[in-house]
Amino acid sequence: MLTSQFTLPAWLDLGATFVFAVSGAVRAMRKGYDIVGTFALAFAAALGGVLMRDGLFLQQGPPVIATDNRYLLMVALAVGASIVAGRFVTRIPVTVAVTDALGLGVYAVVGMQKSIAAGLALLPVVLVGVVNAVGGGLLRDVLSREEPFLFKPGQFYAATVVAGCAVFPLLAIGLALDARIAALASIAVTFSLRLLSIGLDWRTRPLGTTEEGRQDQ
After folding, report:
1. Is-contact 161 87, C-beta < 8 A?
2. pLDDT digits (tens, 9 = 90+) for 10-51
3. Residue 183 phi/psi, 5° resolution?
4. Tens of pLDDT along 117-141?
């Protein structure tokens, strides 16, 4: 049975905000955006999933980013750190991959914990965890005019989040382990699977022939 007993430390949520903001800032810097564009893309990457979670699913008053200054501060710190790191960050693709993978795992767990506290059933809890994790990256890709990972065949993305989300209730509810242990395990599964999918090039396949494919034939 799902209950509100799973309380995770606030630093997990804030840490995920920072990590995803870095991924957005790095994307913006690689595209040559100015400070306003960099902050905007960092904000979208970091808090897009949070806005979807709080606005569409939980609906328990104003979104948390409107009641807690720390989220915007995390975005600002991430932008500052990315600027200071400069070329070192933008020229190393692994930086983007690692920060994005870590953010996926952390945000998925935070989304599930908040859904459990709100009294959602098991499947909606997993759904909100996935949306919380991939929503910011989806918005980041759309705003930077790149086809979202979420929609196209390629290296596992959302699938790694679903796998990680399945681990959390399995351990925390099914095996009654401490929520923090379950959370760390869930994050580790998502993070590891995402990096493995990149390193080993694990890919999904299209369900049909695309228009471009037909034109090439």
Report:
1. no
2. 887 898 899 889 889 988 988 999 999 999 999 999 999 999
3. -65, -45
4. 888 888 999 999 999 999 998 999 8
Q: What is the 3-state secondary structure (H, E, C) of 52-119?
A: HHHHHHHCCCCCHHHCCCHHHHHHHHHHHHHHHHCHHHHCCHHHHHHHHHHHHHHHHHHHHHHHHHCC
Helix (H, G, I), strand (E, B) or coil at 154: coil
The whole-angstrom separation of Cα 44 and Cα 130 is 16
Q: Could you tell me how many residues make up the chain?
A: 217
Nearby residues of 73 by Cβ (< 8 Å), 6 or more positions away: none
Cβ–Cβ < 8 Å for 201, 155: yes
